């Protein structure tokens, strides 16, 4: 009888091991095929979803936290501490882009790491975390930013990237664009435009450029694979999507059609503004 009980126990244990193994491998396979598990049901009501996400961004930005301002000031190069805002913005973009390690959030794409937590984690995170971290630093200097969100860009549920407000005139575009062109030896600098009433405001693209090689066929006036023309603030926009949701530090959000403007040099002549 004891031998029979022992045999039954062994069979039960073996069956348990097989079941657990199957569950584990199915879960692992699912994680590998979809490293960003995403529940579309959270978008059942689009307005509610964006309102919730706007609140998450607002809280993660930690606006007004003195620790963030101190952290930011150290990352601005001494020669630019009293310089124009665009010089500080470029310093912060360089620091964040160069030090960032892309990882998917262990708690899923709907968790957004606060600025201070990202700093403690040595700048690890996804596109939401990158956008919040860079925006939070720039905000601490009193400069306006927003986070753009687009859906369905590849295998991920979407992509987020930060933008910084540079002004409402063509001269602001020229001043910012020329600074970036000279500092990074690049050709084109990209912005988006938004209208408040009948007046346009211009925002510089601050999307990450981490480990992205020149695209196939990349070509500039007879020179191919110019990496330096890709790695700079104001790079070409990642997504072809025309509809964007913009999230602001105060928790407000706005859905708009993307309007792209760029400042660049033509093959012949002086730099011009295109898209206005």
UniProtKB/TrEMBL annotation:
<dbReference type="InterPro" id="IPR002931">
    <property type="entry name" value="Transglutaminase-like"/>
</dbReference>
<dbReference type="InterPro" id="IPR038765">
    <property type="entry name" value="Papain-like_cys_pep_sf"/>
</dbReference>
<dbReference type="Pfam" id="PF01841">
    <property type="entry name" value="Transglut_core"/>
</dbReference>
<feature type="domain" description="Transglutaminase-like">
    <location>
        <begin position="83"/>
        <end position="167"/>
    </location>
</feature>
<protein>
    <submittedName>
        <fullName>Transglutaminase domain-containing protein</fullName>
    </submittedName>
</protein>
